[in-house]
Amino acid sequence: MLYHLAQNFGDTVPVLSVLRYTTFRTGGSIMTALLFVFLFGPMLITKLKLKQGRGQPIREDGPARHLLEKQGTPTMGGLMILLGIVFSTLLWADLSNLYIWTVLFVALGFGAIGFYDDFLKVTRSTASGFSGRIRLFLEFAIAAVAVFVFVRIGKPESSSAMAFPFLKDALWQMGWLFIPFGAFVIVGSGNSVNMTDGLDGLAIVPVMIAAASFGLIVYLVGHAKFADYLQLHYVAGTGELAVICGGVMGAGLGFLWFNAPPAMIFMGDTGSLSLGGILGALAVAVKHEIVLAIIGGLFVLETVSVIVQVVSFKLTGKRVFAMAPLHHHFEEKGWSEPTVVIRFWIIAVVLAILGLATLKLR
């Protein structure tokens, strides 16, 4: 919205010309989303407490102390994150950019699925939501539409190709197979963040770290000169996605204020699915799917721990971890919740640095 003011009146009102810069609007998006969550977060928490009563149902097969310490905490806090992201994006982004609308489509679609799942859990007082198969089908449908749009608006020579980090000219032309591949990345990212969301503050900080990393990546990939210098595959128009990354960082910071231990609210599937979906969509849009697996390596580890646990138990009757996902394993080993959370944050920072190093090591 504000970007179009600069386009229409920037020449006659010079002060508006600053709105043409993506970096300035990204900073504006961060602050807008942060203030939005600060202003409306307390009101939302109060309403959710009144509506939900007993709060989010706690898994009976999780750590025993969670049944005592976390009972009664409301969920669906992802609403404040998602609304903050959407509001700041609509205010600061170039709304003629199809990449913006496509990523917002994924965010809102995944957020709606997560919201319905949270709604069922709260109203039925159970830790399980609606059918996993239906949920995955809907996620894949939304993701496939988004990837199809990315393919249509990208350059024909690279829009349906997979790029490889460390190799400057390597592209694997996947054709229409890129659509299910890209959809898998987006759905996998959404559900990986969802599995990581199990302790106060655990998921939101790594999400912000990943969003900051991809904010830099989309800006560089969407800038012809920077992309050429770094020998990245240039994708025109993706630089504008930095505004969404800014919204994720700002809304995430605001949410962390209320989610810091002891949490006043949980993000629920509403937040974790939408945030993971955004990260996956960003990665697919700029051809950095493999880099997402590095930067978001913490989410990958959490998902793999669940897969290994399930497969091992079904095949051998034995469990590899004391409890899955991985953060519960360390809780069962005697680590306190703040210790697990902070150490996982450190891992997320290290993985982000490694992922960003791929931009230059080519």
Index terms:
mainly alpha, single chain, 15 helices, 362 residues, two-stranded antiparallel ribbon, 2 strands, 2% strand
Please give a structural write-up.
There is one protein chain. The chain has 362 residues and is mainly α. It has one domain. It has 15 helices and two strands. Strands 1-2 form a two-stranded antiparallel sheet. Helix 2 runs antiparallel to helix 4 and helix 7 runs antiparallel to helix 11. The longest helix has 31 residues. The protein is globular, with a radius of gyration of 20 Å.
Straight-line distance between termini: 38 Å
The computed structural class is mainly alpha
**Helical stretch tally:** 15
Given the C-alpha coordinates, what overall shape results? Answer: globular
Count all strands and give the number.
2
Mean pLDDT score, rounded? 89
Residue ranges: pLDDT <50 for 5 or more in a row?
Answer: none
Query: What does the largest sheet look like?
Result: 2 strands, antiparallel
In order across it, which strands form the biggest sheet? 1-2
Number of domains: 1
Helical content band: 55-70%
Radius of gyration: 20 Å
- Strand fraction band? under 5%
Order of secondary-structure elements:
HHHHHHEEHHHHHHHHH
